[in-house]
Design a protein that fits this description.
mainly beta, 12-stranded parallel sheet, 12 strands, about 0% helix, about 60% strand
Length: about 180
């Protein structure tokens, strides 16, 4: 497939429908793919890789809506998202971040994240289905010490809040924090 290398934002889709097929997105500083607003985002047969030394890294206590979840390989704050046969490696805040915009339906199939910081996949407000989704090696970016016991939304392979999650196949391996 085609390659996009070294952008500030890899692919941006705002208030539109977007389909991404067969891309290799490498070292985009803030996001490999950024989807925001009403519409659908479909990603298939795509590889997103970010070097942890050069991609955004936002401290746990300030990461979130106020900085648009920067440091995510794939960021989808859209109505509907499907991610199929896709991998994300190396981003510092989350491999994949999904938030519902209005409706909130997410389908991930044969998806993997590897060597991501803080979170493998972070979900909020969506009706989500995982089929053969695998999270490998979530990295600890800041030393959590004893604090990790009080912050269950940080350092987890999968964070799932205010949504449903139906997960079949795949798994979680070598997470530096919680599993799910």
């Amino acid at each position: 497939g085609d390659t996009l290398d070294g952008a500030i934002y890899g692919i941006v889709a705002r208030f539109s429908d977007a389909t991404i097929v067969g891309l290799n997105i490498t070292d985009s500083q803030y996001y490999g793919v950024y989807g925001l607003g009403q519409g659908t985002l479909s990603i298939q047969d795509t590889v997103v890789v970010g070097d942890p030394d050069t991609t955004a890294s936002v401290a746990d206590d300030s990461w979130g809506a106020r900085n648009n979840y920067a440091g995510s390989g794939i960021f989808a704050w859209v109505d509907d998202v499907s991610i199929i046969d896709t991998s994300v490696t190396g981003y510092n805040n989350s491999g994949i971040t999904i938030k519902e915009y209005d409706a909130g339906v997410a389908w991930l199939e044969r998806v993997s994240t590897e060597d991501t910081g803080r979170h493998g996949i972070w979900l909020s407000g969506s009706d989500t289905t995982f089929v053969d989704v695998t999270i490998w090696g979530v990295r600890e970016v800041e030393d959590q010490g004893e604090e990790i016991c009080y912050t269950v939304d940080r350092y987890a392979a999968v964070v799932s809040g205010e949504n449903s999650l139906d997960w079949t196949g795949g798994g979680i391996y070598d997470s530096a924090g919680y599993g799910l």
